[in-house]
Each structure stands twice: as C-alpha cells, then as structure tokens.
Amino acid sequence: MNAFDEVINRTATDSSKWDKYANQDVIPMWVADMDFAAPGPVLDAIRSRLEHPVLGYNSRPQSVICAIQFWLTRRYGWQVAEESILLSPGVVPALNQAVRAFVRPGRSVAVAIPTYPPFLQAPLNMDRAVTRLPMTPETGWSFPLDALREALEGEHSIDMLMLSHPMNPVGRVIDRATLEAIAALCVAHDVVICSDEIHCDLLLDGRQHTPLASISAEAAARTVTFQAASKTFNLAGLGCAYVVAENESIRDQFEQAGAGIMSHVNTLGFVATEAALSHGDSWHAELIHYLGQNRELVAQAVADLPWVHMRAPEATYLAWIDIRELQLEDAHAFFVGHGLGIAAGEEYEGPGFVRLNYGCPRSTLVQGLSRMSKAIRSRMG
Fold this sequence. Notes:
alpha/beta, Aspartate Aminotransferase, domain 1, 14 helices, 15% strand
C-alpha cells in the first residue's frame, strides 16, 4: 500500500479541519490542510530535538537559513543572500505585516479575484482599500494583466500588488512572460509586489515554478516573497514561514512594521522546516505523483456530471469547481447536508464555485466525490 493511502484518524487532535464537523457524518474537504502524515525525516528530527528537555527562547538557526538557501537554489536556480531571508510565524501574519509596511493611509492593495480570503482581509485590518482585478473562467482564470495595467495607468491609489503565485483558489500557474509584464508594470508605477508563493512546490504535470523576484534585478528590488514548507510537507500547525526581501530598504520597512507585534518562530517549526527542506525530496516527489492521480479522479467525477465544470488545476491540491448551473443559494449548507464539507466560492469572491481539497487518501477522496455526485444529481434530478 502507498503510504499516502493510509487513513489516519485525526479526531481528538485539535484539528481545525476535522473539528469543524465534529460528531457529524461530514467529510471535511474545505481548508488547505492535507490528511497525510508528515515526512519521516521531519518526525524523526522533532523526536530528536525533544530528547533535549529544555524548550526556551531560541535564536535564528544558521542551519535553517542554509536549508532554505539550498532549497531555493536547487529547486528554482534562485540564489538568495543570507541577509535577504527573514523568518515569520506564518504567511498570513506576514501579509498583514506587509500591508502595514507598504500601504499608506488612503491608498490601496491590488488583488486579482477570486482569491485567498486573507488577501482581502489584510488591507481591511489596516483600514486600507482593495482594488479588485477580476479574473474569469472564460479566459481560463488567466492573471488579469489588462485590468492591472488599466488600474495603474489611470488615477490609481495602489501602493501594493498582492499576488497569489501559483493562484489560490483557481490553481493556475503564472508563466514567465506574464510575470515579466507584472513586474514591469509595478516597477514603472513604484508598486511593491508581495508574492505569496506558499503553493509553489505543488506544481503538477512536470511544471516548474519561477519565483517572481528571480526574473530580474528590477523585479527583485520591488518584491517581497513569502514561502513556507507548511503546505508542501503538511506542517501548518508548526508555524514557520520565510520571507525573501532582497532590497535592503524594503526589508527594513517590512521588519519595522512587525516590531513589537510579530512573534518568534517556535523551536519545532525551525526543526521541521530544516528537516523537510533538507531531507524531504523523495517524499515530495511521491506526493506530487499521488496528487496528480487524485486530481484525475476529481476531473473524471466532474466530467461525469453535465451540470458542473472544472479547469484542471495546474498546481495545488485544490479543485475550483463551477457549480453555477445548480443555482444554489447556500452551496456550503447544501453540500454539508449531503455529508461533504467544502468551501463555498463566496469566501473567495467567486460566487457559483466551490473549492475542494483533494489532498487526502484515495479512499477518502472516492467517498467524498461519491457524496458530491449524489448531492448534485439529487439537485438536478
């Protein structure tokens, strides 16, 4: 049996994913949290660290920085200086820190929608506006370059572009030509780019991720990049992300915005990140293969239902499914009523769609897709 086929009981583990529907016959497939055990080398490293009984304040481990540098170099050919790497307890706190750092009062953050909800919430937390750049299924959810250009070349108030790369929830990978165009526009109009690349190691079909900051010195000078091992290796509960800011002035602004607010990364987060990036390659390769097969199961299930549609995700373990023909008033409640907990598109400003997490054992996925099919067929007769 493939290790990813193992069904692990996550009840009584304080799992937000599973506790949401505690004591209900509902399969949770909503949040971006896989149901796979963490890689063996990560668990071994945590056990080894816990053999030392003291868990006091930590310092910035040089070994973690080296592991991050080595990962970035061998995965993307991106060579990043040690001083350009900052550590954070998470990408979402870092997004909020970035808004605090780079967006002036009365100014706005540009966001392509539909998008990850914290992209919309972070500006509101700082009383800043959001300039929405709509994407459409008719264009295959391509990044809306024309909308960005029009917004920047008009009388705009944009200080920052918040980019999901690859794009969550739509699952698109942004190609190099588009990245170059995005960077050129932002450089020309003095806009800081915050590139959330947390899903960058989950590209499917042999695709290769290109960090936006790696395409040119000019792009690097305007970009703050957010990455983490948490999505790739299923370590979200350990709270460790890394931020790359190669421009010293931008890096200083970002750090100052977090002074007295941002907490240190916890010790086990450091340990897990270093182990995953240093020893997780074979586990990662097996994961990508497994996710590719799971994606095909989702695609087939959708294809068998004439009322729903899906563009196959190029990255992530998240399927963005078009259910507009069902004409549901409350998609979340409808599917929960049929034993399936998936995320309604309204959360992402994508009404008429749902997001389904297929990062789970195949038997769980088959059961979830069966419930989805029965629910839709019951609706459409």
